[in-house]
Amino acid sequence: MFSELLSSDNAIKELSKPDYVLRYCVLMQMGAEKMVALELQELQKECDFITHLCPCGVKGIVGICVPRELSTAEDTGDNSDKLGSLRKLLLSLRTVIDVLEFHCIIELPNDYATDSELPLKLYEYVRNLSDPIPSLRKANGFRVTTSRIGMHNFQCREIEYEVGGALSEKYAVKPVMRDPGGEFLWQNIRADVIGNKVLIGTRLNKEELSKRHKIEFLNRVTIKSNIAAMMVREAKLTPGCHILDPFCGSGTILLEAAAIMKKDIVGRGSDSLDKVVKGAIRNAEYEGHLDILEFQHGSAVGISNMYTEHEFDAVITNPPWGVQTGQTTNLETLYKKFLSGVSRVLKPGGRLVVFMLRALQFLDILRGYGQFVLLSSTVVRTRNNLPTIFVLEKQKDEQRDMLKRQLRELSPFVNFSEVIFNVIHDQEKHKDRQGKSENP
Fold first, then answer.
1. Cα–chain-centroid distance for residue 220?
2. How far does CA 439 lie from the centroid of its chain?
3. β-pair type (265-271, 241-245)
4. Model pTM?
5. 5 pLDDT exceeds 90?
6. Cα(17)–Cα(335) distance, rounded to whole angstroms?
7. Between helices 156-171 and 118-128, what is the axis angle to 10°?
8. Do residues 377 and 26 touch, judged by C-beta distance below 8 A?
9. Could you count the other beta carbons within 10 Å of the beta carbon of residue 206?
10. Contact (CB, 8 A) for 104 and 137
């Protein structure tokens, strides 16, 4: 049996304020709900709403609940109106993919994973709902789009066809695949199947919010902008700080940092592929950030030779996952050399934020390395993978710093050149050179 678990008229029992109802919801990768909620908390002083993570147990969603009196108000989109202001704020979020006006969540029957006729049964169920999408009464046209997560015996296009047919008959409005623009009132209805639940809502953004960068060059593997925004926020950047991405690819992380910090940063990026570096430069130029961002060709295992000691306040990066490079690259050696270089160029107390597929392998390397404190790890779902966002902090070694100061003070009184001094006394650089000799 189908059942409507939640509609926009229902109060949510779990909420601390029962007089609030679910009006909007924002979508993100599964597992990242708390990171999105943190960004939403910063907006609560501007609008009256509360958040509800994973309503009805549906992952990848954060609900936006407003006072009941607002939920029945006419939503004109006017920025002076409370709902209009809230919508504007939600569409400005950088950690989300989509913003929906919420309509309902439907629970599928127990045999949802094997029932090939479920789309037709869903048609009948939606057709018999009293008024699932009131805004369609005024629409000139609409389309239904579906994403599907989980094991099912049907395709997205079947859900789109059946739900679209039910709504078309119910509201006497014809499906129109594209927004004609102008005064034509068109709506993009989402009917997303997530396990045994169907989320129905009206999409408020025209295209994915994670595609906000109009980049000139797209690398073969590019991190989504909303994931990059989560990483930048976890780095706790401050105005004027210096940041590094040694696996920069298309430059998405640095572009996102420049936008979030309103250009009040100095960013450096490097990559082992020259064509990728040239592409990142083009992207930064296109968005007007070449005055604060600089890119160069170079391997991440050699960053201790590319940058000065303690040059950066934060390192934010997405190292190779091993899907494409794992056959030809020793990832353990790569990660160890990368951490060694980061420990040299990152300031004590600075943060290292990495997006990593081989999380358990990386965690074992971290435990053996001992230079960083693990602050948090968050597993997220991206397509059909489960990578992890690690947030690390470089430990402050006061004894080592004191010893280095003493060595520096007395070095002018011995017959050593600066190069020899660095080889003898600069431990991290010495380790890096040792690694090169052991792994030609």
1. 18
2. 35
3. parallel
4. 0.88
5. no
6. 47
7. 20
8. no
9. 8
10. no
Which are the contacts of 184, defined by CB distance < 8 A and separation ≥ 6? Answer: 140, 141
- Indicate the helix (H) or strand (E) that contains 234: helix 225-234
- What confidence score (pLDDT) does residue 405 get? 81
Token pair for 37: 């909620």
Crossing angle of helices 225-234/252-260, nearest 10°?
A: 60
Checking DSSP bridges between strand 346-356 and strand 312-317, what pairing results, if any? parallel
Q: What letter represents residue 314's amino acid? A: A
Q: Is 406 helix (H, G, I), strand (E, B) or coil?
A: helix
Q: What is the distance between the alpha carbons of residues 47 and 381, in angstroms, rounded to a whole number?
A: 30
CA atoms within 13 A on the CB side of 232: 30
Cβ neighbors of 233 (< 8 A, separation 6 or more) are 35, 38, 39, 95, 260
Unique residue bearing structure tokens 């160890």: 336
The residues near 262 (Cβ < 8 Å, ≥ 6 apart) are none
Distance between CA atoms of residues 34 and 15, nearest Å: 16
User: Residue 284 has what DSSP assignment?
Assistant: H
Show the tokens assigned to 376: 């948090």
- Tell me the C-alpha distance between 247 and 66, whole Å: 42
CA–CA distance, 163 with 189 (Å, rounded to integer): 10
Convert the pLDDT of each residue in 38-64 to its tens digit: 999 999 988 999 999 999 999 999 999
Segment holding 334, helix H or strand E: helix 331-345
Give the pairing of strands 293-297 and 265-271. Answer: parallel
**First vs last Cα of the chain: how many Å apart?**
64
Cα→Cα distances 186→136, 214, 244, 358, Å:
9, 25, 43, 43
Helix and strand counts by DSSP (H, E) for the chain? 14, 16
What CA–CA distances, in Å, run from 360 to 176, 373, 386? 47, 16, 12
pLDDT in tens, 305-335: 999 999 999 999 999 887 655 455 788 999 9
The first and second tokens of residue 306, run together, are 């590319």
